[in-house]
Amino acid sequence: MSAQGDCEFLVKKARELVSEDPWAAKAWLITARTLYPSDFNIQYEMYTIERNAERTASAGRLLYDMFVNFPDQPVVWREISVITAALRSDCQDKHAQFLRGKDADMLLRLGCHPPSAPCLCFLTRVSVSRLCVSGLFETLPGRVQCEMLLKATEQCFNTVEKAEMLLLLLRRFPESVVQHGVSLGETLLEAESIEDLDTPVNCFRKLFVCDVLPLIINTSDMRLPPSLMYKYMHKAAEFYIAYVTRGPSADGQLPGSQEAVGLKSPSAHRGSQRYVIDGLTEKSSLVSDPWERLLDILAVVGALCEWQGDKASRSYPEILQRMKKLCRYLPSLEGETLSRCRSQVVTCAALVLFRSAYLYVSTVQPSLFQAHCSPGTGPWILVEDLSSVYSEVDLEKSAKHAHKKCKLADSREKTVSSDDEEGLGKGRNRHIVLSKADVPGWAETLDSFRTARESWDLLHSHEALESEFSKICSSWKTDTWLWLRIFLTDMIIYQGHYRKALTSLHQMAAFQPLQQGPMVPQGSLEHQRALIQLASCHYALGEYRLACEKLLEVVCTLTPQAHDPSRTPEELTRSTRTKFRKGSDLRLLPCTTKAVLPFCLQLMLACFKLRAFMDNRDDLALGHVIVLLQHDWPLGEALFLKAIDKICQQGSFQYENFFNYVTNIDMLEEFAYLRTTEGGRVQLELLPNQGMLIKNPSPSLGLVSQEFSTLLLPGAQSAERHHTVTRGITKGVKEDFRLAMERQVARCGENLLSVLHRFCINERVILVQSLP
Amino acid sequence: MSDIRHSLLRRDALSAAKEVLYHLDIYFSSQLQSTAVPIVDKGTIELVEEFIFHVSKDRNIQLKRMSSMQELQLLEIMCSYFQEQSKDAVRQLIFSALFSPQGGKADDSRMAMMGKLVSMAVAVCRVPILECAASWLQRTHALYCVRLAKVLVDDYCSLVPGSIQTLRQIYTASPRFCCQFITAVTALYDLSSEELIPSSGLLEMVVTWITDDPRLSLITFLNMPISANMPLGSLGITPLVGLVRWCAKSPLSYKRNSKAPVANGHTGKLARESVEEGVDLDPLYSKLHLSVLQILLMLQAHLTEKNLFGRLELLQFEQMVQLVEELGRLVEELNPLNATREIELSLNRLAQVLQVAMASGALLCTREDLRPICSRLPHNNLLQLVMSGPVQQPPHSAFQPGFYPHIHTPPLGYPPRPSTPAAAAHPAHPSFIPGMSFPYRPMR
Fold first, then answer.
1. How far apart are CA A36 and CA A47, in angstroms?
2. Which biological process annotations from GO are given for this protein (chain A) (predicted)?
3. Contact flag A6-B391 (C-beta cutoff 8 Å)
4. Residues linked to residue A771 through DSSP beta bridges, in sequence order
């Protein structure tokens, strides 16, 4: 008989006895172990009996014995990995509970029979509930746990697994942080850089920032050099910011969940919130209160780096105020103190900037961060406020001013930083109009916008700060952050640097399709956001033609809704009456057809208004203005009357599109009156052919216009044809005018927005061309 | 001394006895103040024998005997005296002066009185008396100890049903006494006849004690000074021998005794009990056997700790020889064909206990020593394996063969590892491992 034969005999005896007389089985194994102390199977059998009986204490001790005496046995490592996996795993996980239930069931069924070898093997692998193995581990003395975890860590080849193991160790034995904390952190950062991952939201960084770093910085006997602290702080900040501002998860792309998107059910919504960092479990991918965690780290790092000021200050806006104060002393500092102070200001202000900008953009463009936005929550577009467009107050002044502005802006194009500062002089404290009912939390949004701007200003108030800040920006590649670009653009618009804003908007257009990608359906209004802002900026610069071009591009993509009955005249007056402040207000415009189309019409009106009322006669512009004034009638009544005055002065007026697009009964009446003796017998040439024949304008233009009109009004087509055929050159004009008027009166009920929308589309070329 | 005697003679029995106790108290208290090791002199012994146990060396004097009532009163007085005496040494001395057997006529009444006192102390839970009795059980010849055990078993296990619960409490009251009691009881009930098989209640109590706290059986050993010599003929320091006997012999003894009544035509005690109480005794012995092995493993660490490894034989070879002989006789008495299972079980337990005891240093003998004594026994695979020893394994293993971590035992701190100083103290003592010097194996 060989030693192995003896051992097999002894183990077999024990196995035979285990179910009927477990004490005898153990007695056999004890004896066997004293005979063959270095035989693994005997000890493993002992362990198995104890573990399967869930006697955690003795199983734990036996496991430890095996761990020490048989460090090369794969079975031991399998056991230990089962334990560490259980320790790491989320015990609340439903899946785990399910497994546990199934195991128990399995154990019962298998327990009835004398367990065969494969059976035992199965028991080993599956049956032991996680509760049992974790409990088993807990029974071991701390020193042993520590030793076991360290050894187990050595067995791991996978960096993440290894890190998770070490974390188990560090969490349980805080005294080991001093020894292993920093090296673990560095290993993770190294792994991250080796893997060359394209986002800081990766498993290595997550483990470093959320799990290792808090342990390191909260261990008081660690004296880390400030440079390392800054490095870690910036790593953490980059991670948290990237985590918060990550795009909505891509699982909306899966065929199954696409339906859920449509359903908008709570479960679908929750599904969209799920986010798993590659290489981690769902549970450990979860990062709660990122901004708060960042603030915690900031507080500790601040204390360790001996930052100035009150350490107890706990909110981002407070931090900004503190930094502002600190900045005042900056010029008087030098050397070590200066650089420390500078780092403090830049780090703090940058965090405030990114957080506030994020908060602002998450309201203005929520689709960047959420897959499914509830209706009524954005996006919003920051544009010039045009609610005063119907007033005639500033006509004269701004007409001249616009030219000046234009020139100024052009001449300053090359000087980068402080362009048109004094030229537009309204960079500070501009008012932002918004419909408070539509923007929940509007006050916070505006606050965030302001705080972000102030942080930005602070960071650019000294050259030293600026250069340090730009170092952070370039290492984080902030120029690829679409959301930040959106904020910056809005900030520039707010500051009135429209030329720069245009550049920024063009940049944005370059990477927008990349990032906005799949979540926003193509051709949606959100894509027009930049266009609308472009138009608004061009307008502000007095570049009306470009403004109109962009606008009409937008309008082409819109489909007008049926006239909104909810928009009562009272509402109109209320929303416009608010401003007679200055022409320099901004507006947060909801990005919906309902809001965008009226805005486009207003902006076009604003573009044409100046031209129409110039001293030189421009009937085409005036005609466009009259068409556009129909919108929001009777707000534009005063302006309309001014136009009528101008027509009266001119004694004639030619606008061939009049009958295509003017359906306002008040206007029609006014024009009918103009032709009368009382009205001053104004020469009105409002019919297309009439104009073409009398004035003979550029044929191409007339043709286009006619073609459009025939396309446009199939009902009216035959009648006009008829007239064209039967009418003499001047004969019957009166008759035609009368007929046309009658027909227009019948069109009064038409959806005005559709008419105006048609106007924009059909007359697009003329509209653009009629502006300088 | 004679003055005292004279004055005592004039008193009635009870007050004389009280006076003797009073005298002893003063006498030993003052003696303890002057000398470190007080002696119980002859005069005092005589005084005690004459006035407490009523046996005088002077045959001419007719002693007044106490009535039962007076005796009870005296016991009560003793009880409260031991309870109230705060000095441990005085208490021990007086207990010793009163109850140490002197080899004379008085010993019978001495034992009777002591039995009553201890029984009373168990009933009313007088810990100081139990502690004194524990020391007494350690010092006194086994024959007397067994008598005390018998009194307690009779009082608590046979006389009044249910009163065993009271006896069970001594485990919490005085573990030391409990340990000595187990030793005495296992010495008394050696399973050699039907009468000497423990009742199931007693067995169950002992097994529960030991399985609940395996260290209990080592308490006397652990509290014993290393240098202490055991008085000749006293009980063992541990109940291990008795417990081993119970485990190894029980399958055969029970088998024999269940058979015997059939021949006599009426059911024996064992069968009767098992049927009446519906208790399956097999698991109890199985548990007990496992506990014994665990205790032996624990013992190894303690022996090492006390630097007694290889020097103190807790299971004496002669006792094992005797056990093997008893087993051999039992096997012969039983028809091996009818008792295959029982013989197998007995011999497995014997083999296991021999192996573990040798490995843990409780039994100091070689495997060669075992071979002749076990040769009379029927063949058993495990016993054969134990006698021939393990096949020598290639020495690549770094495992220290002389040391076995404690397994299946409650924590005693953490098991020392081969690297700990305790084990390092015995780095190369293969001689402690019997059989390790025996390189070849005969055919089985």
1. 16
2. snRNA processing
3. yes
4. none
Contacts of B359 in chain A (CB under 8 A): 34-35
Six token digits for residue B292: 């014994």
Q: B343: domain range? A: 237-390+440-444
Residues of B in contact with A144 (CB under 8 A): 414
Question: Position A117: which residue type?
Answer: A
Dump pLDDT digits (tens) for A42-82. 989 998 888 888 787 888 888 888 888 887 888 887 877 77
In this predicted model, what pLDDT tens digit does every residue of A670-712 receive, in sequence order? 888 888 878 777 878 777 655 444 444 444 444 444 444 444 4
Residues B185 and B198 sit within 8 Å (Cβ to Cβ): yes
Question: What rounded mean pLDDT belongs to chain B?
Answer: 80
- What is the full DSSP assignment across B210-223? HHH-GGGGGHHHHH
What phi, psi does B128 have (nearest 5°)? -60, -40
For residue B440, the chain A residues in CB contact (below 8 A) are none
Contacts of B295 (CB under 8 A, 6+ apart): B210, B214, B215, B217, B218, B238, B240
Q: How far apart are CA A121 and CA A100, in angstroms?
A: 17
As for how many domains chain B has, the answer is 1
Residues of chain B in Cβ contact (below 8 Å) with chain A? 282-283, 286-287, 289-290, 293-294, 297, 348-349, 351-352, 355-356, 359-360, 381-382, 385-386, 389-393, 397, 399, 401, 403-408, 411, 414-415, 417, 441, 444
Decide if B331 is inside a domain: yes
Instruction: Write the residue in B391, B411, B417 that is nearest to A2 by C-beta.
Output: B391
Single-letter residue type at B43? G
Between A1, A13, A144, which is nearest B444 by CB? A1
The rounded radius of gyration (Å) of the Cα atoms in chain B is: 25
Main-chain dihedrals φ then ψ at residue B234, nearest 5 degrees: -80, 175
Distance (Å, whole) CA B257 – CA B270? 7
- Distance in Å, alpha carbon of B228 to nearest chain A alpha carbon: 30
Q: Determine the 3-state secondary structure of A586 from DSSP.
A: strand
Specify the 3-state DSSP secondary structure of A749. helix
Residue A126: DSSP 8-state: I
Which amino acid is present at A714? P
Chain A nearest-CA residue for B410: A58
**Least trusted range by pLDDT, from A596-605, B268-277, B420-429:** B420-429
Q: Do A65 and B385 touch (CB under 8 A)?
A: no
Residue B388's closest chain A neighbor by CA? Answer: A35
In a domain, B71, yes or no: no
Distance CA A555, CA A30 (A): 89
In a domain, B358, yes or no: yes
The 3-class SS string of A291-350 reads HHHHHHHHHHHHHHCCCCCCCCCCCHHHHHHHHHHHHHHHHHCCHHHHHHHHHHHHHHHH
Which SS3 state, helix, strand or coil, does residue A652 take?
A: strand
Query: With contacts defined as CB-CB under 8 Å, which chain A residues touch B381?
Result: 9
Asked if A24 and B290 come within 8 Å (Cβ–Cβ), the reply is yes
Helix (H, G, I), strand (E, B) or coil at A384: strand
Do the Cβ atoms of A1 and B399 come within 8 Å? no
CB neighbour class for A92 (10 Å; exposed up to 12, middle 13-18, buried from 19) = exposed
The shortest CB-CB distance from B290 to any of A3, A26, A33 is to: A26
SS3 category, A427: coil
Q: Taking a C-beta distance cutoff of 8 angstroms, is the pair A326, A309 a contact?
A: yes
Give the SS3 label for residue A684: strand
Q: Number of Cβ pairs closer than 8 Å across A and B? A: 95
Closest by CA to B385, choosing from A56, A140, A10, is A10
Identify the helix (H) or strand (E) that includes residue B119: helix B107-124
Write out the two tokens for A383.
Answer: 């544009």
Check: CB of residue A526 under 8 Å from CB of residue A379: yes
Does the interface ipTM go beyond 0.90? no
Residue B372 lies inside a defined structural domain of this protein? yes
- Give the whole-angstrom CA distance, residue A584 versus residue A424: 9
